[in-house]
Amino acid sequence: MAETLQITSQGQGIPLVLIHGWGLNSGVWQPLAEKLSTFCKVITVDLPGYGLNIDNNLDDYSLVNISDKIVEAINEPAVYLGWSLGGLVATDIAQRYQDDTLALITVASSPCFVEQSSTTEQTTWFGIKPLLLNAFHHQLAKDTKKTIDGFLKIQAMGSPHVRKNLKEIKDLIFQYDMPSRQTLDDSLALLEEVDLREELSLLTLPFLRLYGRLDSLIPKNVATFVDQLTPSSESYIFPHASHAPFISHPDDFFEVLKTWLLSNQKSL
């Protein structure tokens, strides 16, 4: 059985857990975490097999097992913020650990990442085309680093300073060793297989969804679809951002997040 996941913590106030996305690690949160720590207790956690937990993996790399390990490590009620794949993890935690979840925030995420089509070949759910995910699997088998480098370029899209932001992301995440090809493959499979649309519709806690209008992985149309699933949730679309608005537009992202957290403070 895997050991308890390592976490980092800074600041005081509302416990806010930051969960990273596929192929990256908790280092990507460093600039945002420093700002948030002025009024929050910011907790960062690496997924099993990533970052500080690179040697702490799971025999069964399932969403349920990942969520269980994170809740065990946090060990207190908290707001869970998940980016991309981390949004799936945060959503699963919010649905299965309601007493331990004060609020849910997802960033550039979706309850179902894969594009779904009807029998008439008309798209009924916007998402990543299956062929693109298959291409990532094939690339991983050939060259792990090249695959990650290509994925990182997507994160910086939408910024007026693409090269600067790309360098910033690399500097942040390459503080840690790269996850194994098996971990990358297993965690990528979660994006292909997990569908939390039904579970999402049952959530009643405070829920904020953040998107980038230029995001090529999570099309802005997803926001409209999720509005229908969770009419009580709130959403914001950063007009000039892509898949990593907290990197490309850090000040705007911080202000939107801070305003929402403080306005919901009494209910947390």
Structure description:
The protein has about 270 residues and is of the alpha/beta class. It has a single domain, classed as Rossmann fold, CATH 3.40.50.1820. It is about 40% helix and about 15% strand. It has eleven helices and nine strands. Helix 5 (about 145-155) crosses helix 6 (about 160-175). The chain is globular. It starts with 6 loop residues before the first strand and ends in a 5-residue tail after the last helix. The mean pLDDT is about 90.
What are the SSEs and their pairings?
Elements: E1 7-10, E2 14-19, H1 30-36, E3 40-45, H2 63-74, E4 78-83, H3 85-96, E5 101-107, E6 116-117, E7 123-125, H4 130-142, H5 144-156, H6 162-173, H7 181-193, H8 197-200, E8 207-212, H9 221-229, E9 234-238, H10 245-248, H11 250-263
Helix pairs in contact: 2-3, 4-5, 4-7, 5-6
N-to-C span? 33 Å
- Remind me, CATH topology? Rossmann fold
User: How many separate domains?
Assistant: 1
Q: What is the share of helical residues?
A: 40-55%
Low-confidence stretches: none
Order of helices and strands: EEHEHEHEEEHHHHHEHEHH
β-strand amount: 15-25%
User: Can you tell me the CATH superfamily?
Assistant: Alpha/Beta hydrolase fold, catalytic domain
Arrangement of strands in the largest sheet: 1-3-2-4-5-8-9
* Radius of gyration using CA atoms only: 17 Å
CATH class: Alpha Beta
H/I helix tally: 11
Q: Return the CATH architecture.
A: 3-Layer(aba) Sandwich
User: What would you call the structural class?
Assistant: alpha/beta
- On the 0 to 100 scale, the average pLDDT is 91
